[in-house]
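Suppose you are handed only two things: the residues of a chain and a line of SMILES describing 2-acetamido-2-deoxy-beta-D-glucopyranose. What would the bound structure be? This form records exactly that question and the answer produced for it, so the two can be stored side by side and reused later without any lookup.

QUESTION INPUTS
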Amino acid sequence: MNIIIKNFLVQAAITSIALGQFCEHQWEGKFADHEVDGVPYLQARQDVAPPPLEIRPLIVNGPSSNRVDLIFFGDGYTEDEKDKFFDDALFLANNITDGQTFFDVLPVLNFWAGFSPSKENSLLTSEKSGVGTGGKPLDVTTASPNNGPVIIRHELGHSIIGVGEEYDGGEVYTGVNAAKSIDSVPWKQWYTDASKEPKIQRTNMPIQAYPWTLLNTSQSWSQTFTSAGTYSTHLLQVSVSGVTATSDLLVEIDGKDAGWEWNPAVGEDRYIYNIKRDEALAPGEHEIKFTLLNEERQGSAQLCSFEVLEYGDEEEFNFEPRYHGLYPTFSYKNVTSYRPTNDLCLMRDTYSANFCDACIEGLWLSLLGRLKLIDNITQEAQPDGSTNATLNLLPLAKLRQVPNPHEEAYTILWYGADGTTVLKDWTNSTTALLGPDTTEFGVEVRFWTEQVRVDSAGVLVQKERYSVE
Ligand SMILES: *[C@@H]1O[C@H](CO)[C@@H](O)[C@H](O)[C@H]1NC(C)=O
Ligand SMILES: *[C@@H]1O[C@H](CO)[C@@H](O)[C@H](O)[C@H]1NC(C)=O
Ligand SMILES: *[C@@H]1O[C@H](CO)[C@@H](O)[C@H](O)[C@H]1NC(C)=O
Ligand SMILES: *[C@@H]1O[C@H](CO)[C@@H](O)[C@H](O)[C@H]1NC(C)=O
Ligand SMILES: *[C@@H]1O[C@H](CO)[C@@H](O)[C@H](O)[C@H]1NC(C)=O
Ligand SMILES: *[C@@H]1O[C@H](CO)[C@@H](O)[C@H](O)[C@H]1NC(C)=O
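ANSWER OUTPUT
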């Protein structure tokens, strides 16, 4: 029914990509709100032929009329690279649905790819400009095969679930995964131990910065920050790009090597490193210092961002990945909001392939809110005058082609002409045989999944009345 159009651009074999922070650059420029000779620009251009567009199916699970369609568009692929575009698009569609991320909801999605050739390979001429943008409709641009799936699934989280960030330093914290205060927590039903909540996990962010600065070997880049000295452990998060070896860069706290190690899997791409340090920061001033050691990386090596988080002791902060409680998140203005898990969710840790329970529930509600559980119903007159009514449902629960590891069930009730009598013989059956004198009947379909605990809008139930045809 509803078509969401998602754009992305993938182009492999690119070197030296300095990826922008995924959601930090929302393009809000104006496009067509000017006039040509007194006629609105778009109207003045109506006689221009549209660009050629070839749409191919990637993963199709049912009729577009009752699925959420995701269309990947390429940009920067030439006519000669058409096959590569469709391969890249299929890689991405598979990557974000194959046993992870969108796997559970895959039966209600269709993935398509739309190809329109570019005259030239625009990316190769702008190697350093790879940035991710988020918005509605989604327009994601990435030039990196590593970061491609990472950015797509995170941005799809924003646009499909309608949630904001969970990482620190963002601007927007809204939706099912964000609480402004402990009195307005939308995921109470997912608390791992409700008897302990609301308990704010004890943590603090003494410094966060986005220097986006090229590093050089003549001078270190450093900054000081202050710790209250009342926490037990801390984490240093650093994002850098343009480095190709651990020996390229030294990261120090208070003159001591903090233990940064390059991730070979990402090459020169920007990568966010988390260095957990199981010791307390002493009260008072501290210095964090970045020193480029390899002269050959000058002009490429970039310090993008860093932050320090401090944590209370085991009683005060729960590091258990699946623990759902109240974790403080600090915005770019250091305003505190709360999120459900520490770093389980890909809305916080973009390298995670999974959503937290609150986001998964939001994903189901958002998707099913746009769809109907019943694709259609067919009626077939039988020789004896009775009618065989058969429901085609969204292929979930037992109707899944590929089972998922979660409990799901359909409850199906058929009602007679009066609308209240349940035709018990056909309960939970997708077909019913209706007697010769039946003129109308009703169906109530309920979908249940353990991944949804609160459905206040009632999107997991559909009730219909039908006339016998
Ligand atoms: C998805 O892509 C990433 C990076 O390219 C890769 O490491 C990962 O194994 C892929 N996962 C799946 C399920 O395809
Ligand atoms: C954020 O606020 C907390 C509490 O006031 C403070 O301890 C911390 O240093 C601040 N962090 C930054 C980056 O301003
Ligand atoms: C080297 O880096 C330091 C620290 O970022 C900066 O202040 C300085 O201007 C840089 N020098 C050159 C020659 O780029
Ligand atoms: C009914 O829905 C099924 C999918 O559930 C589809 O295959 C079929 O074509 C649809 N039939 C009609 C008549 O629309
Ligand atoms: C119908 O299915 C639901 C969900 O599995 C189940 O709870 C219920 O007991 C079933 N009803 C009958 C009559 O089998
Ligand atoms: C109705 O028809 C479908 C196939 O057309 C069949 O699978 C089903 O068993 C029939 N239902 C009944 C109740 O006879």
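WHAT STANDS OUT: Confidence is low (pLDDT under 50) at residues 1-29, 123-137. The longest strand covers residues 302-311.
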